[in-house]
Amino acid sequence: MTHKDIEGLYDSAINFVFSQGKFSEDLLKKALQLEAPEINLLINKMISNGAITEDDADGNYSTLKTYIHSDYLSQRELSNVSDRNTKGKSKLSTSKVFVTISLMVFAVSVFIAFRQPVSLIFFFLLLVVSLNYIDKIGSEVASLLITFGSIGILFYVNSMTPLWGEMYEANSRLQEISKREFSNNVAKRNKISYAQDNVSKALKDPSSAIFSGGYISDSGAICGYVNGKNSFGAYTGNQRYAFFSGQTYVDDGSKDFTNAWDKVCK
User: Fold this and answer.
1) So what's the pLDDT on residue 3?
2) Which of the listed residues 185, 242, 257, 258 has the most CB atoms within 10 Å of its CB?
3) Does residue 220 surpass a pLDDT of 60?
4) Backbone φ and ψ of 224, nearest 5°
């Protein structure tokens, strides 16, 4: 029998015994139609609350005029309010714990997910759905949804594109190498393009220059081949060129150019 059941029967027992003034256990048992254990529980409760006397030699109990049932009801209500407040605080405290944990997990997950920015879309949708239904599912369930949803998204994204571990470190190194190579290639192309601009200016017809085989030698010189038109408007064929120390040199068939080429371009 629950505490709530006992309180309900207690009210009925009080009404009955005060209507009788004097009663026996059997009389109360018949009136309330209860078994001996429940009746004994009610009688003991009434005695402890000062509502009735102990049983006399004949086994009868008498009510006490000093007992005021309304006072008892007021105290019981205060006790119930206190219990509800305690439970409410406990539930609120539990909710705060869930919310705090979910926010921490969500924040850490988003921080890791920044390594793959497109995955942030999943976290945004998770947050929107959880907050949209929080009134229906409650803050605790919403917190659990955010917590396990964040972890699930992380592992899903990690299975597609590594976000941590050895695979992530290997991919990071490869990306860094690719970036350096790209930057180096861009720098080389810019140097070669700058050299070719200067070489074309040394031709009879700069606009006719056709370059091929451009490269940067070990000495840092930009070397290659250029074909341009002569004074008669005809292409002369590929000629070697070299650009170094801010100077432009085009093969004129001289031994000096050949020596310079062999020195800085090979």
Assistant:
1) 64
2) 242
3) yes
4) 170, -155
Instruction: Extract the tokens encoding 144.
Output: 């659990």
Structure token digits, residue 235: 């292409």
Structure tokens that stand for 154 in this block: 């992380």
- Helix, strand, coil percent values for the chain (each to nearest 5): 65, 10, 20
DSSP 3-state assignment of 204? coil
Q: Of 107-116, 146-155, 212-221, give the lowest mean pLDDT range.
A: 107-116
Return the domain boundaries, the chain: 3-67, 74-160, 187-264
In sign, the C-alpha dihedral spanning 127, 128, 132, 136 is negative
- 219, 242 contact by CB (below 8 A): no
Per CATH, the number for 3-67 is: 1.10.10.10
Mean pLDDT value across residues 213-218: 92
The answer to whether the beta carbons of residues 23 and 17 sit under 8 Å apart is: yes
Instruction: Report the C-alpha gap between 209 and 33 in whole angstroms.
Output: 117
- Phi, psi angles (nearest 5°) of residue 24: -115, 170
With 80 as the cut, is the pLDDT of residue 216 above it? Answer: yes
SS3 sequence, 82-141? HHHHHHHHHHHHHHHHHHHHHHHHHHHHHHHHCCCHHHHHHHHHHHHHHHHCHHHHHHHH
